Write a sequence for this structure.
């Protein structure tokens, strides 16, 4: 007679999973304390970051309102063009109609018109210089770039909070299931769990991330 073959597929014999053991109460309390501390630090850190982002948004709105208002006043600033034109018009109207037919008077009026033109061009040139200077101030203003960098730093801090929370949760769950399987826990932390990268300071994760822990 031939030997029976080993069953395959659904009839195959599987290795039963390792039996889970209950957690010792001190270890359960320690894991619970670790989890609550991690979650509290995570939530408090998000609150601080979002509060700073709201502050940056409010500062940005106020800044742009001030810039718009100041630029509007700059565009509407008075100049001497109308005063010069009115003075020319008044002097022109003072010339008697009969004298205006005199060639010498005509020449004088043409000279005054040229002087008026030159005076108006002087005003325009002066305003152009002021406009170029104002544009240079606006271009050189680094407020937007500076505060954009600050806002980017706040968003980077949010990413750091997520990384720190993930690493802490990974370490806690690794210890939890190792303890449920009856394995001894390493005092230096579970093996295979790497610290999160420090995206705020640009480190490699050797140092702990800047997770803001609330004051007790």
């Amino acid at each position: 007679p031939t030997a029976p073959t080993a069953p395959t597929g659904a009839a195959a014999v599987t290795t039963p999973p390792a039996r889970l053991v209950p957690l010792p109460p001190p270890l359960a309390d320690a894991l619970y304390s670790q989890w609550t501390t991690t979650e509290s630090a995570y939530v408090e850190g998000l609150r601080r970051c979002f509060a700073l982002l709201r502050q940056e948004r409010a500062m940005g709105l106020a800044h742009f309102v001030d810039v718009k208002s100041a630029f509007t006043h700059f565009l509407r600033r008075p100049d001497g063009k109308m005063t010069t034109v009115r003075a020319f018009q008044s002097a022109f109207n003072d010339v008697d109609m009969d004298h205006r037919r005199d060639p010498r008077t005509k020449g004088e009026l043409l000279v005054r018109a040229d002087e008026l033109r030159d005076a108006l061009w002087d005003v325009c040139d002066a305003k152009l210089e002021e406009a170029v200077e104002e544009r240079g101030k606006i271009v050189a203003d680094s407020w937007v770039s500076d505060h954009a960098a600050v806002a980017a730093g706040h968003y980077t801090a949010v990413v750091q909070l997520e990384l720190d929370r993930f690493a802490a949760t990974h370490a806690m769950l690794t210890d939890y299931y190792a303890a449920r399987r009856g394995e001894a826990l390493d005092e230096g932390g579970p093996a295979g769990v790497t610290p999160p990268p420090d995206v705020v300071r640009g480190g490699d994760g050797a140092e702990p991330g800047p997770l803001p822990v609330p004051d007790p």
In short: Residues 25-75 form the longest helix (51 residues). The chain has four helices and no strands.
